[in-house]
Structure formats: structure tokens, C-alpha cells
Amino acid sequence: MTADLTRATAAELAARIANREVSAVEVAQAHLDRIGEVDGAVNAFLHVDTEGALNAARKVDEDIAAGAHVGPLAGVPIALKDVLTTEGVPTTVGSKILEGWIPPYDATVTRRLKEAGLVILGKTNMDEFAMGSSTENSAYGPTRNPWDTDRIPGGSGGGSAAALAAFEAPLSIGTDTGGSIRQPGAVTGTVGVKPTYGGVSRYGLVAFSSSLDQAGPCARTVLDAALLHEVIAGYDPMDSTSIDAPVPPVVAAAREGANGDLSGVRVGVVTQFSGEGYQPGVLRSFEAAVAQLKQLGAEVVEVSCPSFDYALPAYYLIAPSEASSNLARFDAMRYGIRVGDDGTRSAEEVMSLTREAGFGPEVKRRIMIGTYALSSGYYDAYYGSAQKVRTLISRDFDAAFATVDVLVSPTTPTTAFPIGERTNDPMAMYKADLCTIPANLAGNAAMSVPSGLSDEDGLPVGLQIMAPALQDHRMYRVAAAYEVARDAALGAPVISGVPQLAGVAR
Ligand code: GLN
């Protein structure tokens, strides 16, 4: 019964709770029990809010018993990346500098989840300030990939993805600045969506790179991701970059796609994302996925986006530049820890000691790169050039979307790598996001859907689907159709292959 509840999809759980076949409290308890059993091995959670979750679940059960109308995900448990503020519940952003900080307010995403009756289980582990591709930059220890606990779960939202793959939660929220939803989704065999920039409010999302940061849904199925997307998306006057337009109809698109017909849909294969540095098993999985899209009736063509080759260097100037400015607010006065304030030191000295002790090495590296790139005399050469590349990338997308409906590529060049393999090689770590970064720079929608396991190492591979801004529904339709065909071909959902976690009875 309990295993049954933790393996169900969010859509199934919501239906069973609404029919009163099972209570929201039982569903929450089953997931809390599962977290208790396996999270010692996975470390997906930084904070589990047992009491808050059970109270929220009880409220949903009472509402249903009273005959109230509840939303399509009411009573379903969810895990939140620790970059979103939660009133009264710790928010660390994976950093020592915010240790012990209890936010006095909810992020808009948090508030919308609560209003829709979702049950927040807790906060998930992440690379410090969302800077990283492996969750090894967390100040609270790495998260482990449930497929192989000696490997990384991706990053920066490794905790949100691992929680899904370890059946600790059916849904989670991530944020994607350069790939932090999609890359963890790919390497854990789960679905991760970066909505159109401005599609989901950034209010209460601790800022890393404000022109790129975007929260989005993580789930084990395309429909579940779509249901969650519609709960969190939509205009918010509290975020000046929020788009005041109707939410793309992603749930309807996911349901339409599940019919398995993609005739009339034009799919472009990005030619830049293959060759050196790409694992052959990843490329074979991608080719098989493209063949399946053709079988579903899609028209497939190759599309060249030459500026994508410069996306990575442009991103690693723009993102650190914005971070160096955003992270100035951690000044030992307003939030979190304060070091060396013994009455003898100046405010400046206390700030400097606090930042020295509170920030980890990758965060310091980014602040230094960003400060340098923005400094007078270098601004045009670095930041200015990067912004020009950003425009060229947007133009490549515009040209591509003039002839195709969606673009596809592998989500990541490789499957999950061993913990420790890239920690001393920042460039190797940054390359995990080669394929995901262009969509952030242009602000359009992109997602990763599992495309099976690599024939080399048996680890999950992700198919990336990209769509124009505010056309998020296009990629959901393609992903949902592909998901049905993939499961039919493999004989079972990809996620059902997650091995038993060490020492844990399933
Ligand atoms: N891995 C990328 C980085 O380190 C992307 C991070 C993200 O999307 N938050 O910046």
C-alpha cells in the first residue's frame, strides 16, 4: 500500500484523494516514511517539514470531506528546491551564509502551491546559490543519484530530481538558469521543464542571474509536469519580468500528445549538439528518439544554429556578472550568519569575514569573474560581447522557428558522472550545460524527457525539446507523444528501472 502510494503519479494520487479512496494524510505519511528510509543514502532533502506537511494534508482532507471544490493536484506531496522562500521554514540556497535564516514570507511559487492544496514535504539540496551541475557545491554535502549512489544527480537542482527518482516525492520544483532543471532531469530519468522566461514568477526566488533564472516543474511523467506547470505559472505583479499573458495550455497539449499522433509537427534536429565530447550511448539514444518522433508522424529536418557554439562562454560571463551584483546583498547585516562581530571590528571587516566564511569556492570564483567582467575597461570586451552573442543566439532560434515547430537535441553530452570526477575541473563541470544554455540566453521554453538508458552504462539519457517563447504547449505535446511511444518500445516506464537503494526494502 505504502509502496503503491509512493510509486503513483501525481495525477493518480490527486484522483484517489479527491475520490476519498485514500486520504491526503496517508499519502503525505507514506512519502515522509519513504524519506525516512532512503534519504540517508540520497541526501535529497536539506529540511523535511513533517508537521507542516501533515497539517496541509489534513486541511485538504477536511475540505474534500466538506464537499469543497479542490484543484487538480490537491493533496499531492511536493518538494521545493531550497532557493524558494518558505514562510517560517528554513531556506539556505545550499549555502552556509544563509544557515539558520527563516524567511518571513513565501515566494509566489510557494504561495500558489499552498493555495492549490499541494503538500510541501520540505526543501531540497542544491549547488550553493544554484551554481553547479552536480550538487557537489552544496555546503551540506552532495546529493546522490538514486540510479547509482556513487554518481551525481546533476545540478544545481540535484535534490529536486533525486527526490523524484528515489520515490520520495511525486513532484518537485526546480530552477533553471543554465540547465539546472533539465540536466538533473536527464541524468535521473525524470521530466524537467524550464518554462518560457517570465512564465513563472521569480518573486521569492533567491536571485543568481536575474535575466536567466526561471522556476519550473519536475515530475516523473509529462502530464504531471504539465499539471504542476499550470499551478505555478501566470502573471505576478511582484516580478517585473513576469509576462502578462495567458498561461500556455500545457495540460491540454500533454493530453493531446498522449494520443500518439504528431503528424503535421515539424521537428528540427540541432546539428551543433553532437560530435566530440558527446558520449556515443547518449547520441544513440537521441537518434532512437528522433526515429520514434518520425514514426509518430513528425516531419524531421536538420537545423543549424551556428551561434550556439558560443553560448557557453557568453553564459559564463553574463551569469557571473549578474551574480556578482545580486550576491552583494549578503553583507552580514540583513540575512543569515555574521562572523567576527565582537565590537572591535568595522562593518566592512565583519562583512568581509562573513563572506569569506559563508561563501564556498565556486561562488567566490563566480563573484570574482563577474566583478572583473563588469569592471571599467573590460566591460565592453567581456560583458558587452557576451550580450551581443546572446542576441545572435536569439536570432538563430528565430530563424529555426520560422521553419520548425520545436527543436530537439540531447539534454546533456554524457550520463551521470561519478561523484568527485569533475570537482577540480570547472570547465569539465560547465560543459554539462552545453546543450541547455542557449534556451536560457534566448528566454524560450525547453524541457528534458527521458529517452531510455544508455547502452554503454545503463544510465538515463534525456531528450531535450525546445519551443519558442510562450509556446510551451508545443513541447509538451511532442514530449507526451514520445513518452507513450518510448514506454511501448521499452515495455515499461524508464523510471521503473531505478535500482533498489542500498539497504532499503522497496
Ligand atoms: N550549471 C550551470 C551553472 O553552474 C547552470 C546552473 C543553473 O541553471 N542554476 O551556472
TrEMBL record:
Keywords: ATP-binding, Ligase, Nucleotide-binding, Protein biosynthesis, Transferase
Residues annotated as catalytic: 81 (charge relay system), 156 (charge relay system), 180 (acyl-ester intermediate)
EC number of the protein: 6.3.5.7
Alphabetized GO MF terms: ATP binding; glutaminyl-tRNA synthase (glutamine-hydrolyzing) activity; transferase activity
Signal sequence segment: none
GO biological processes: translation
Entry coiled-coil feature ranges: none
PROSITE patterns: AMIDASES
One Gene Ontology CC term in the entry: glutamyl-tRNA(Gln) amidotransferase complex
Catalytic activity: L-glutamyl-tRNA(Gln) + L-glutamine + ATP + H2O = L-glutaminyl-tRNA(Gln) + L-glutamate + ADP + phosphate + H(+)
Domain Amidase: start-end pairs: 26-474
Cross-referenced NCBIfam families: gatA (TIGR00132)
PANTHER family (alphabetical): GLUTAMYL-TRNA(GLN) AMIDOTRANSFERASE SUBUNIT A, TRANSAMIDASE
Family: Belongs to the amidase family. GatA subfamily.
Chain's role: Allows the formation of correctly charged Gln-tRNA(Gln) through the transamidation of misacylated Glu-tRNA(Gln) in organisms which lack glutaminyl-tRNA synthetase. The reaction takes place in the presence of glutamine and ATP through an activated gamma-phospho-Glu-tRNA(Gln).
Subunit: Heterotrimer of A, B and C subunits.
UniProt-recorded name of the protein: Glutamyl-tRNA(Gln) amidotransferase subunit A
Organism: Saccharothrix carnea
